Amino acid sequence: MLTIALLASAYLGICQETLYKVYGKHTEEAMFIIHGASLPLFAFMGEDIYKSVIAFSRSYPIDILGFRVPHMWAYLAATCLLQWMCISFIYRLNATFESLTVTMVVTVRKFLSLLISILWFRNSFTLAHWIGAALVFTGTLAFADIWTNPNGTAKETKEKKY
């Protein structure tokens, strides 16, 4: 599933790059349209969402600015805020850099999130995790082109020559 998500994310980056070339770099509008277009798909998960709303509302309350709020709703609000900040950054990054660079940054971020999750929840770091880590870091280093050119990427060197 993570592989499919990475491939879909990479393709979305290519689509966004094309969108920015044709219509200009309007990151907020692109983010609104792309996320708004996906909202109707949540209708297929309506029953699960309803069950989650009930469970969230029944969670123990915490005090936030003098209001008692079920803690799961507070966690959801914090998660949504942080996700919005991250996505906004990714859209701005995609408007500034090439799609491949953004895909590499997002892949490394996802890997670090997975690593933090493994450490936080004290799960075992299996052979599959080590292989995945090696692939992520090898891919990142290959993209940075550190073996053949210590002064920058091959593209940067090519641009300096002209």
TrEMBL record:
This protein's name: UAA transporter family protein
UniProt-annotated location(s): Endomembrane system
Similarity remark: Belongs to the nucleotide-sugar transporter family. SLC35B subfamily.
Topology class, membrane: Multi-pass membrane protein
GO MF annotation: an example: UDP-xylose transmembrane transporter activity
Domain of life: Eukaryota
Keywords: Membrane, Sugar transport, Transmembrane, Transmembrane helix, Transport
Record field: transmembrane: 72-93, 100-121, 127-148
Keyword Chaperone: no
Keyword Transmembrane helix annotated: yes
InterPro entries listed in its UniProt record: EmrE-like, SCL35B1-4/HUT1
GO CC terms in record: endoplasmic reticulum membrane; Golgi membrane
